[in-house]
Write a sequence for this structure.
């Protein structure tokens, strides 16, 4: 548990360092993710302690962005003034994104016998 | 004479000065959110994080606690976001073998979806005259929140707005996905799953897992690579718009 956490912190620190020194446009934690992913691909498997900690953290990922999200209190007047328009933008956008991604796959994807099919419900 | 208890205001001053209050507030609101989510049979509308954000925001307004004061305490939770981002490597690696077998269609669909997400959100918002601060917050909203917030921060947009928009997007996507896919006649689980992961990140992915394991695995992959590619492509697209 602790071993996995320490390794994640090390990759996070490595990412921050790379972001500071080489790639300031990319957030440190994302560079840390890419470094860890590279290590996993090279090793060919996920070490058990990393698997354990990452599962634990990701299971409650939502908890971690509560503090920043509560900052919405500072934007309430602005959001209230634009509520309908923002609502429309989000709704149209998510429907279009779902549709375009799925439709593109349908055009490009080949049927493989292992694929399971959704039956209309 | 028994020793007098300190007046309640003194206790209050002590509590509000330590990180404890903000931490307890955050964690208990999240627990309430989770309980309601479970009670609703995991209905995406009862999103535990949205519920928690409403509860905490309401509480600090009632307590007249400035947001900066709250954040000072809650930053210990916030700090772990970076670590959580790094740990996303594990689920992405799980999908690696799958990704290799269908690399090109998945990549093309992801890029098409990613561009659609930004273009439609910004297009509609601008057409309806939305304030520029809010429009910038929309850019990264289809990417998983921890990465989306990082992208927003680097672009000088508000990470808070992005997190809120990402959550609403996730909830909408989780609810509407099946209707969109059925309307378009997309019936393969891997295609449905991947699309919901690209459009509605974590919330869509957990919905996909609850419907079908193959849909869940592809959703997780879609969310992961959208996160990684989004970091490069979203600032690039934003500079074009």
């Amino acid at each position: 548990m602790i071993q996995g956490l320490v390794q994640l912190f090390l990759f996070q620190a490595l990412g921050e360092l790379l972001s500071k020194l080489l790639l300031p446009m990319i957030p440190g934690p994302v560079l840390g993710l890419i470094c860890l992913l590279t290590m996993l691909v090279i090793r060919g498997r996920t070490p058990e302690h990393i698997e354990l900690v990452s599962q634990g953290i990701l299971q409650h990922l939502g908890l971690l962005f509560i503090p920043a999200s509560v900052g919405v209190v500072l934007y309430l007047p602005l959001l209230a003034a634009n509520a309908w328009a923002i609502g429309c933008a989000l709704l149209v956008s998510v429907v279009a994104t779902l549709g375009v991604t799925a439709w593109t796959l349908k055009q490009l994807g080949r049927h493989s016998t292992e694929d399971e099919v959704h039956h209309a419900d | 004479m028994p020793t007098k208890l300190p007046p309640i205001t003194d206790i209050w001053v002590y509590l509000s000065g330590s990180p404890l209050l903000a931490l307890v507030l955050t964690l208990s609101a999240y627990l309430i959110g989770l309980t309601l989510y479970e009670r609703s049979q995991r209905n995406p509308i009862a999103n535990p994080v949205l519920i928690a954000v409403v509860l905490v925001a309401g509480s600090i307004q009632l307590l007249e606690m400035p947001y900066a004061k709250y954040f000072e305490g809650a930053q210990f939770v916030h700090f772990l976001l970076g670590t959580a981002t790094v740990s996303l490597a594990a689920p992405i690696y799980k999908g690696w073998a799958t990704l290799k077998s269908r690399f090109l269609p998945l990549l093309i669909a992801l890029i098409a979806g990613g561009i659609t997400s930004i273009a439609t959100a910004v297009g509609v918002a601008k057409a309806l005259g939305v304030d520029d601060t809010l429009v910038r917050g929309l850019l990264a909203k289809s990417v998983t929140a921890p990465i989306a917030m990082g992208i927003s921060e680097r672009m000088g947009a508000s990470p808070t707005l992005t997190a809120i928009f990402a959550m609403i997007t996730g909830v909408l996507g989780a609810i509407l996905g099946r209707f969109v896919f059925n309307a378009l006649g997309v019936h393969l689980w891997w295609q449905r799953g991947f699309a919901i992961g690209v459009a509605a990140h974590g919330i869509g992915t957990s919905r996909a897992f609850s419907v079908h394991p193959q849909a869940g695995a592809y959703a997780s992959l879609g969310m992961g690579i959208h996160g990684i590619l989004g970091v490069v492509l979203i600032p690039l697209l934003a500079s074009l718009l």
The CA atoms of residues 72 and 79 of chain A lie 9 Å apart.
